[in-house]
Amino acid sequence: MAGTTDAQAPGFYRRRIGEAVVTTVNDGFLDIPFEILRGVEICEMHSLMRDAFRDGAPRLTVNAFVIETETNTILVDAGGGSTTVYSMGRLIDNLRAAGFSPADFDTVLLTHIHPDHSSGLMGPGGEAIFSRAEIVVHADDIGFWSDKSLRDGRSPAATPYLASADMVLEAYREQFRPVSGGVVAPGITQLPLPGHTPGHSGYRLESGGETLVIWGDTVHVPEIQVPRPQVTSEYDIDARLAHENRQRIFDYVATERLLVTGGHVHLPGFAHVVRNGNGFHLVAEPWQVVV
Ligand SMILES: [Zn+2]
Asked: How far apart are the CA of 115 and the centre of ligand 1, in A?
């Protein structure tokens, strides 16, 4: 066992999309109980996990992405940071291992304002660490999470995340650029996919004739929600709408045969979606050696 330790290789992976370079950057993981998922019997969830050779309750991968284009250096989502749970917060170390520091980024594209995507924008004291980046997010997420009357408990799915949303909205209040779909940077379009949160969105990158869709939290547990798109979660603010938009984006990327990735797609994180019965199947792209 000479030279062997338990230390893993740094959690990043690069892939070229046309002229752009996309780097998946791992922030850690999140363990969740089956009970937060809804829409099929729990025994069927166990069976789908066994089919995927995954033991026990779902372990969610938590990823962010770097997009380097001719004009911009962009971070898509930022992981959970040190303000959430111990199993996340590896973003900065993995960014450094990939050759980036927070000051490199001119733009952050958030898929939505949940702590496993936005709390990593802040240091341990809640301070902004992406000091020169504009923070792009759908206007409906800013509107929703800024609504102080939500503290009345009317939206139970939102209640646990009000404090973390407040922190990021406060830390970056001068840097937010609310948008409502459309082009957000050269070659990059925001795709609104509301339901999981009111402004939940994906982003489509087009460069040199190639396309990548980053679909945000379209799936939390790909082993279950790709074959059964009707499976929603306790995290969804509007579960019915989340299901509709999951089905819609699956249909779109399957029909167009587009490459996809997302915050909770397992590393190296790039895949295609194909139809399979009433559901879909995720075909992971193999690791690519750049020559
Ligand atoms: Zn998430």
From this structure: 8
* CATH for the stretch 12-284: 3.60.15.10
Q: Is-contact 185 133, C-beta < 8 A?
A: no
| Domain residue spans of the chain | 12-284
C-alpha 157 to ligand 1 mean position (Å): 13
Cα 274 to middle of ligand 1, angstroms: 23
Pairing of strands 59-68, 20-31: antiparallel
* Tens-place pLDDT, residues 194-247: 999 999 999 999 999 999 999 999 999 999 999 999 999 999 999 999 999 999
Query: How many A from CA of 221 to the centre of ligand 1?
Result: 10
CA of 5 to the centre of ligand 1 (A): 30
